[in-house]
Design a protein that fits this description.
It is built from ten helices and 13 strands. By secondary structure, it is α+β, with helices and mostly antiparallel strands. It has two domains: 185 residues, Arylamine N-acetyltransferase fold, CATH 3.30.2140.20; 72 residues, Arylamine N-acetyltransferase (Arylamine N-acetyltransferase fold, 2-Layer Sandwich), CATH 3.30.2140.10. The strands form two sheets. It has an eight-stranded antiparallel sheet with strand order 5-4-3-2-9-8-7-6. A hairpin with a 2-residue loop joins strand 12 and strand 13. The longest helix is centred in the first third of the chain and has 15 residues.
């Protein structure tokens, strides 16, 4: 782990004390630096869970990634700084999709100050600080989050305003790494995968959360939500660069597919 290169990327000084305050600062800096994004899936570029490949993509090539990459990199950084880290396997929307969802999300548990904390920088940006591994609620504006026990599982929920919660279920057992490898391959190839169907880019900076789904750019803050429908490929490339710090000019080649998906989802728009 090249910590010097990682912290040069985030623009933060390398900390010397692995405590909870530092952990929260590390999470916030990581979220503000590395957007959650599936551009490679859309482009048909294979995604690897190999640690060196993840470091090269996110740090050296200044890209973002999805949970296997984001929490994969962040977990290694934390371990190198002296934190006690456990990779755990989760199932996004397991209560809707069922057991086939298990392994489609990587999160982290960190043992610190005599207790466990849920740490997740790979779920799009709703969790901005460590959560005690116990039932409870927290506010990470513009989101309300909760951790609770449901039928023998732990469930993390995020909610924006009065909308339905988005969640994942997990246990505190160490992750099944072979399952991660299979799910990573499936999610970038299966036609029913949401990452195959839609371009998704998200990033939290402070209490501002930007979400690009297809050609719709949403900005959420404690004051409310605004949206913009992108009009052409040039606007897509510009927003990726200016809003998310992603210099990916080849994304312009996705425009026709993005427009077709938008028309299918919003036929009356």
């Amino acid at each position: 782990m090249d910590l010097q290169a990682y912290f040069a990327r985030t623009g933060q000084p390398q900390p010397t004390t692995p405590d909870r305050v530092t952990l929260a600062q590390l999470m916030q800096a990581h979220l503000a630096t590395f957007p959650f994004e599936n551009i490679d899936v859309q482009l048909g570029t294979p995604i690897s869970i190999d640690p060196d490949a993840i470091f090269d993509k996110l740090v050296t090539r200044r890209r973002g990634g999805w949970c296997f990459e984001q929490n994969g990199l962040f977990g290694r950084v934390l371990e190198a700084l002296g934190y006690d880290v456990r990779r755990i396997s989760a199932g996004v929307m397991r209560h809707v999709i069922g057991e086939m969802s298990l392994g489609n999300h990587l999160a982290l548990l960190v043992r610190l100050e005599g207790r466990l904390w849920l740490v997740d920088v790979g779920f799009g940006g709703s969790q901005a600080a460590p959560l005690p591994f116990e039932a409870g609620n927290a506010q990470f504006a513009p989101y309300a989050v909760a951790l609770r026990e449901v039928d023998g599982w732990w469930r993390f929920e995020e909610r924006y305003g009065e909308g339905d919660p988005f969640s994942y279920d997990f246990s505190d057992a160490p992750a099944d790494e072979a399952l991660f490898a299979r799910r990573c391959a499936e999610l970038q190839a299966a036609p029913q995968s949401p990452f195959v169907q839609n371009l998704v880019v998200q990033q939290r900076r402070g209490d501002i959360h930007s979400i690009l789904r297809g050609r719709v750019l949403i900005t959420r803050s404690p004051e409310g939500e605004t949206s913009e429908t992108l009009q052409n490929a040039e606007a897509l490339v510009e927003r990726l660069d200016q809003r998310f710090g992603l210099a990916v000019p080849e994304a312009a080649g996705l425009w026709d597919a993005i427009c077709a998906r938008h028309a299918a989802l919003f036929p009356d728009a």
